[in-house]
Amino acid sequence: MNALYRWNFAPVLDNLDVLWAGAIGTLRLFVVCLVLGFGFGLVVGLGRHARARWIHLPATAFVEFFRNTPVLVQILWFYYALPILLPFQISPLIAAALGISLNSAAFSAEIYRGGIESIERGQAEAARALGMTAAQAMRRVILPQALRRMLPALTNRGIEIFKMTTLASAVAYVELLQQGKLLASLNFNPIETYTVIAVVFFLCLFPLVQATYALERRLGRSDA
Amino acid sequence: MTMADASSPSTPAPAAAAAQPLMRVRGLHKSFADHAVLRGIDLDVMPGDRIAILGASGSGKSTLLRCLNFMELPSAGVVELAGQAIGRASPGKGDAGLRTYEEAELTRVRQRVGMVFQQFNLFPHMTALGNVMEGLRTVRGQREPDARARALTELARVGLADKADAYPARLSGGQKQRVAIARALAMDPEVLLFDEPTSALDPELVGEVLRVIRSLAEEGRTMLLVTHEIGFAYHVAGRVLFIADGAIHEQGTPDQVLKHPSERRTRAFVERHREFDF
Questions:
Q1: A2-11, A18-27, B22-31, B254-263: which has the minimum mean pLDDT?
Q2: Fewer CB within 10 A of the terminal residue: chain B, N end or C end?
Q3: B119 — contact with chain A (CB < 8 Å)?
Q4: Who contacts A157 (Cβ-Cβ below 8 Å, separation ≥6)?
Q5: pTM for this structure?
């Protein structure tokens, strides 16, 4: 540790437009992965919950496969290996989005399943006794309550997705870390550049997490 | 076995429409894995019948009730609703064997056979009004103002119009159960099933729920009530079934079954429940 190191953020701040482009890329990838990951995760989670084997087994296989392989390997595989098997090119965005979304779907599927199965049996029975179909009972009675219980776990997943977007730099997708690498190698100032990158991530995520805490408190109000 | 029932089980009753049972149960069996809970129940529920179902815990009385709105699927036997046998006989089996049930048909049946649960099972994320409106909106597809007006009427009927905007967590057990009754009533069920509606309540809250049920009985609604409140059964029911070992052990008027039981087990049950009467 060199106490005499003289910090100089000027070269980083001079290139804010480069970082801005990265931030836009990070945000785009995050939103895509959040929507696809949580959306597909719900489908897979309901599949895991289903009683029919032909739904249950593929959903389980999906979850186990994507939970037990590293996201970075998936991204590299989609980017470098898949185009050899398929007759079209895959952009860095699509490769990264596929890897992160499928991984998030696998993890969030387990959150959905756990949340759904934590709701007392009597709730589904009361809904069915009114004449609701299974789908109506799920949509109107089970899921609204389950989502509330799942919110902390889903928030964690969301934060994880945000941070996982940096893995896209492995296929040169333009996001924050990728742009940071670029600046650090051009200006030979990894200390300042990566410090700024870390601070930017913190400033993005911290308010987001606080907001979900507030949401949790608000939703918790009608419960006992 | 005493059969106070006038109709003979084998006659399909081609008589007048008024004489047709609302629900007709024949040879109802229910097993969970290897354990036989119901072993052949025959029952006719006439319009306006108020039937109390008594029995020791584990005798199968709740399971019987839950088979009538298909919360549990019968292992064998037939349940008819207004002359319509529910489900289809499985190929290769007779009418008394295992049947297959279409989910869509059961959904329609449940709209006509309301149920009130021991644990209330109110939806905690909806207000009292929201709970009562839910079936009207989601199942009946009613417009919001219509459903709201109807739900308020039903809440007023159970004496809870002033609690319309309260969430279940803010209601007492007795109030929760009255909301649950209003929720069932809003669907205009032809038959109401009460599954030990006061068993989860503190003793001082039992009365308010029983009063609501009695007022429904006095309106002439068809109801089946599984209960441990022998006194209530005596005063409100028109017919009492005593269930033991998954079969109807004795049945008749409240006076016959509760005051002058002819079966030893019925007598023992009634005495046990009246032990501390004064």
A1: A2-11
A2: C
A3: yes
A4: A37, A38, A104, A107, A108, A111
A5: 0.84
B54 three-state secondary structure: strand
Per DSSP, the three-state class of A131 is coil
Please tell me the distance from the alpha carbon of residue B216 to that of residue B158, in angstroms, as a whole number: 10
The values of phi and psi at residue B99, to 5°, are -115, 155
Element (H, E) at B156: helix B144-157
Partner-chain contact A131 B134, CB within 8 Å:
no
Q: Between chain A and chain B, how many beta carbons pairs sit less than 8 Å apart? A: 70
- When scoring A130, A140, A150, A151 by the number of chain B Cβ atoms within 10 A, the one with the most, hence best to mutate, is A130
Q: Is A87 on the interface with B (CB under 8 A)?
A: no
- CA nearest neighbour of A161 among A23, A21, A38, A74: A38
Residue type, A218: R
pLDDT cut 70: percent of chain B above it? 90
Could you report the predicted ipTM of this complex, rounded to two decimals?
0.88
Per-residue pLDDT reduced to its tens digit, B88-121: 887 655 545 778 999 999 999 999 999 999 999 9
Beta pairing, strands B35-45 & B23-32: antiparallel
Query: Do B85 and B78 touch, CB atoms closer than 8 A?
Result: yes
Q: At what angle do helices B173-185 and A121-129 cross, to 10 degrees?
A: 30
B117 vs A125: CB contact, 8 Å cut-off?
A: yes
Which residues fall within 8 angstroms of residue A41, CB to CB, at 6 or more apart?
A104, A105, A106, A107, A108, A109, A111, A112
Q: A134 and B115 in contact by Cβ < 8 A?
A: no
Torsion, Cα A52 A56 A57 A58, to 10 degrees, reads 120
Cβ atoms of B107 and B118 closer than 8 Å: no
pLDDT tens per residue, range B145-163 = 999 999 999 999 999 999 9
Angle CA A136–A142–A145, to nearest 5:
135
Per DSSP, helices labelled H in chain A are 10-13, 16-49, 53-67, 71-76, 82-85, 92-118, 121-129, 134-137, 143-164, 176-187, 190-219
Per the CB < 8 A criterion, the answer to whether B97 and B90 are in contact is yes
Total Cβ atoms within 10 A of residue B116:
27
pLDDT band at residue A223, thresholds of 50, 70 and 90? low
* Residue of A12 and A23 predicted with greater confidence: A23
CA distances from A51 to A57, A59, B107, B122 (A): 10, 12, 19, 25
- Lowest-pLDDT range, A52-66, A127-141, B14-28, B173-187? B14-28
Q: Is B36 helix (H, G, I), strand (E, B) or coil?
A: strand
Q: What is the mean pLDDT of residues B2-8?
A: 43
Q: Confidence band (pLDDT; 50, 70, 90) for A220?
A: low
The alpha-carbon radius of gyration of chain B (Å, integer) is: 19
